[in-house]
Amino acid sequence: MRTLFAAALIACSSVAFTGRNRMLLYSDSEITSLSNESYNELMSTTKVSDNKAQAAMIQEVGERLTGALTKYLASKGEQSLLDDITWSFKLVQDDQVNAFCMPGGQVVFYEGIMPLCDTPDLVAVVMGHEIAHALARHGNERMSQQALTSIVGSVTGQVVEQKTSQNGRILFEAAFAVGSEYGYLLPYSRKHESEADEIGLYIMAIAGYDIEQAPVLWKRMSENESQYVPEFMSTHPSHANRIKNLQKHMDEARKIAAEIQ
Ligand SMILES: [Zn+2]
Asked: Which end of the chain has the lower number of beta carbons within 10 A, N or C?
């Protein structure tokens, strides 16, 4: 068990912005290659939206948020956090109220979410949240937790290494449920959702978007409760809690934004 312990120590790192410690058993490049594969598979059967104006807004907001994030991380000497992420921003034909970001950086908005985020600031709330999942390595963390749960206690560290890489594809597909009845991405835990809300707010602030629009979006979402939404809402914290959580981080977001002026 000593090797497993060592492997766990090596894999320990902290989340950008929040500093929360977590354990990642997969390399970024491994996750990215699984992510790219799944994304290509997915897009081969998905129709891109014909709505040019909305698609352009998604693209513009995505570029502005990730551009500002890249500059900000570079100013902190942390640009390597984005080394294995290649951002892309697509709007697809689907009526569900949803959006997701693959761990490799591929952001997908569904047409069905657009009536709720019909301004660049509101798009930035959703987009900031989604790219925060990728930046924070939430997919890797979830896969690592699943891998550890299934193997801990019975094997040595070497087997952990072997097993995790053998099971990488299976765990990735289980975590992201590509092509399954659930949609493209299974819900994250509440902890990951709250963290994505917080980091998303900071990224919005850095890019100069109106962070006050975050609670506005969640209010709109709550008025839309009847829709089944896999990634974006189903395990998300209740809207009231989520708005409270966002309010808690507004000052910090303003501070971060002021830092870079
Ligand atoms: Zn989320």
From this structure: C
